[in-house]
Amino acid sequence: MPSPNRRENAPGPKKVLVASDFSPIANRALEYARSLAHAFGASVTVLHVVPPVLQVEGIDAAGVAREAESWARRQAEKLSNESDRVVIVHGTPAECIVREARRQRADLIVLGSRGLSGWKKWILGSVAQQVIQSAPCPVLVVSKGVRVLRRRGGTLRSSSVRR
């Protein structure tokens, strides 16, 4: 739900799509997106993609997919607030994120990135990279080293996580 503080023609996003797998980094990205949405008076949609389940003999793939969706709904209930809209779809994550951004006419996509590198990135690829290449709008990637925006004197600030 858009904030009542938003000026009609103010610059910034009006519709923020947050792609989430409910991991800690995705939850951090959601908090970051909420802070931005509040500052700009934007609405937030949380999108979770249930990836395809491989057909293996003796495994009920449809049952596994249903259980994955049920788990995602429980996670969404824990994290969402009344102003968030939650969408759960089945498919390939990057393709579904881009399709949903187009469908909703999102102004910004926010997602977390674990920062895979080397052979893991080469073999597994990067959902964030695939989304960046195909997105119909800007993409904000929140890395594991970023903390959530904090309000200080009316401005939003972020800081790095020190380890």
Share of helix, binned = 25-40%
Biggest sheet character: 5 strands, parallel
- What is the count of distinct domains? 1
Please state the structural category. alpha/beta
CATH fold category name:
Rossmann fold
Which geometry do the CA atoms define? globular
Task: Give helix and strand order, one letter per element, not per position.
Answer: EHEHEHEHHEEE
**What's the total count of β strands?**
7
- The CATH architecture classification is 3-Layer(aba) Sandwich
Distance between the first and last residues' Cα: 36 Å
Low-pLDDT stretches: 159-163
* Percent of residues in β-strands: 15-25%
The H-level CATH homologous superfamily, spelled out, is HUPs
Q: Please give the radius of gyration in angstroms.
A: 17 Å
Write out the strand line-up for the largest beta sheet, numbering strands in chain order: 3-2-1-4-5
Number of DSSP helices?
5
What's the CATH class, please? Alpha Beta
In round numbers, the mean pLDDT is 80
Walkthrough of the structure:
- By secondary structure, this protein is an alpha/beta fold.
- 39% of the residues lie in helices and 23% in strands.
- The protein has a single domain, classed as Rossmann fold (3-Layer(aba) Sandwich).
- It has 5 helices and 7 strands; from the N terminus they run βαβαβαβααβββ.
- α2 links the parallel β2 and β3.
- The longest helix is centred in the middle third of the chain and has 19 residues.
- It starts with 14 loop residues before the first strand and ends in a 6-residue tail after the last strand.
